[in-house]
Specification:
By secondary structure, this protein is of the alpha+beta class. It has 2 domains: 2-145 and 340-497, no CATH class; 174-323, Jelly Rolls (Sandwich), CATH 2.60.120.10. Helix content is 68%, strand content 8%. Strands 1-8-3-6 form a 4-stranded antiparallel beta sheet. Strand 4 (223-227) and strand 5 (230-235) form a beta hairpin.
Amino acid sequence: MKKFINKRLALVVLVMLLFVPFVYSNGGASGVVVNGSSKYMLWAFILGGLSALSLVLGSILGILWQPNPRLTAGFTAFGAGALLAALSVELIAPTVQEFVGDKNGALLNGTTGHNSYLEFIFLIGGCILGGVAFFFLNEALNSKGGYLRKASTTISYLNHKKRNRYKIALTRLSKIKLLRSIPPSHMDVLVQHLRHTHIRAGRTLFKKGDSLTKLYLIESGEVETFRDGELLGVLKEGSLVGESALLTNEQATYNAIALTDLKLFELSFNDFNVIHKSCPELQTIIETESKHELMHDIAAGNGENSHKNAQVWAKKASQQLHRTSYVPSQTEINQEAEKQTSAPLSIWLGIFLDGIPESFVIGAGFLLILSAKASQGVVAFTDVVPYTLIAGLFLSNFPEAMSSSIGMKKMGWKPLKILTLWTSLMLMTALGAIFGYYYGVRIPNYVEIGVEGLAAGAMLTMIAQTMIPEAVHIGGSKVTGLSTLAGYLAAVAFKVFE
């Protein structure tokens, strides 16, 4: 139990690291009026809450209504486009424009433009660091069940897991010279017919005298083999059972019984015939070599050349697995969710990870506008709202919460639990906006630019890694492309009318 709690604590600490890299920088707000900071902190809180209110609204819609997948994909892609525009216009463009302007001015006036160079370097460095940090934190959370928060991350994670499983299977199957004659480019055909199955302890795979119709590869578990009541041996992980079934329905010469629960890959005689017809290389090798020669690699214990050929084939075959992809059923997803005891916390942390950068950006964006307006006299709340940024985040949060809530509902989560999760994240985003404003006042401008770059890099990586794939998986590339464009233009329109 203590070890489990420590793992959870480690995840929390990893996520919070995105918040603290700038806490220890030396002070130095540049010209910002901090009188009445309590009022401005309240404004930052309100802005953060407004941008994240769509999380709650989207979750309510996801609980009450399950829209057509293409419509959900359109919403998601629209949000991704809006967020891309908000990041480009509000975070990246101002620093780049200032850098280019100062650079041209420096060339004309013979000055150095040192400040803009430093800010630009911090922006680029922050973007890289933010993207890398998001990637590794996301991977850490996914390994604990955080991938269940979105359809795209679920599909990607389960496909990755499946490919690793098949990679191991291909390494074992490479021992069979007959299968090595299948070109690696045909792996999609082989994998399509290589079934993954489970067998309970005590079940008989086949008996002496039965026609062998399947080849079994043991992924985990043990199989006892008997002949006339005498134990021949125990086959363990990585062993092949009934391999001669690939060429003929010959009778088994022993009994094979599951000693423990088994995870197996199986390839039936009929499936092999289908592969045979689609792969002329198999026909050639079957015609030119005898059955004994095709199967001798296993019986002879693999000579040096045979072992090397097997390794080369397995490596090339594994490299082709990325071409195959599948969409897991809801039953498979629910089974995976049951295995992940820390999934609820990981899902919450995963969504929190997606929202950390935007919460800081809201506070920092608000601070930039406040800095410009404060020198002009009395400032009203409506004067300092970063409309494009708020609109982009609002539009991106809504479909994300809706899509994720639909998935959570399918996994059996109660509506109250789903609403509580999204409401807590809305509050965390609002608090994060206060954090962004409060520390933005107290750090040098170039450090603030760097942290904005950190947030931008993380958000851009999140869009490319989760939101766009989510839309493609759900609705296809056509819906995704046009909807992303619509979202981008909608956010740009907010800037035009701002």
